[in-house]
Every structure is written in structure tokens, then in C-alpha cells.
Structure prediction request, 179 residues.
Amino acid sequence: VRLGRLYRDDIGFNVEAVHWYAEALAADLTCQEASVQLIELCREREAWRTAVEVFAAKEDRELRHRAAQMAEKKLDDRELSVGLYQALLDEDQKDVEAYEQLARLYTEFAEWDLLTRTYEKRLEVTLDKAERDDIAERLALINQATVPDDEPAVPEAESVSTPRASEGPAEPDTEPAEE
Prediction:
């Protein structure tokens, strides 16, 4: 940290200061000064990729979440952000924040298959009944919204609610007219 301060404040060589603050974080992930100074230097230099790379390489989950957020917000690199959240989930399948952020990103970009897979994975690891019910409801809504009108929304429901060809045609859907 002292070397970072020296390069930043006394010499004015910020590239080297970034290096030393990153080294300080590598040695001590809880070093608040190194984290704050690194972010400040990256903000000044608009060198967010450096901060993302440094934080993403750390073992501290909070820093890695921060890296994913910076990848999206500062770099406008959605794919990198998704990859960082996926890496967090690879290590801890119960990381609720990573699931929520992935769901938000997939919803924002209408990636329904990926959103469905994310909710299905979360459903597999969630034990809380209320949370499971909420996830199941979200999956049902996605299914309803994305399945074409001529296909059943849930394949198992086909034998129960969809008439067979021998039973005659199904009732037509009544949808409001488009404006």
C-alpha cells in the first residue's frame, strides 16, 4: 500500500500505483485502502478493465461480485459479466445474488432459454418452500410467455387439458385484438 501511495501521490505514476495496490490486495483481501485506491485510480484513468481483472482474480466473493458489476456497468461488457457470475455459481451453487443478477441480465436481453435454465438450477438448490414456489411461478410465467400458441405450455398438461384429435378441435383462444 505504501508503494502504491508513493507512486500515486509523490511520483504521479498511476500505472505503477495500480500495480502495487493490486499486489496489496493479493496479499490481503481485506485491505480496504488498497481496494478504494485501486477503484479510484481506475476511475480517474477510466481503466475499469484493470479493476475488473484484479477483482475477478481474487478469492474473495464480494470482490468478484464487484468485478461482475463493473464489467457490466463500467465496461458495458455483458458477456464478461455473465461469465463472472457463472464462475461464482460454479463455485457456490447457492449464491443467490449471482442467480438474481443472471436472471436480471437474461430478462433484460430476452434470453428466455438461459433464464429458464438459471431458474431451474436455482430451483434444484433451493430448500425454502416459499422461494421454491416463487421460482416455480417465474418458470411458469416464462413458459407461458415463450411457448407458441399452437403448442401446449407444459407437455405433461397436454394429456389432461388438450383434447386429443379423436375428441374434436380445441376451443379457440380468446385474445384481445391488437391495436
In short: The mean pLDDT is 75. The radius of gyration is 24 Å. The first helix runs from residue 2 to 11.
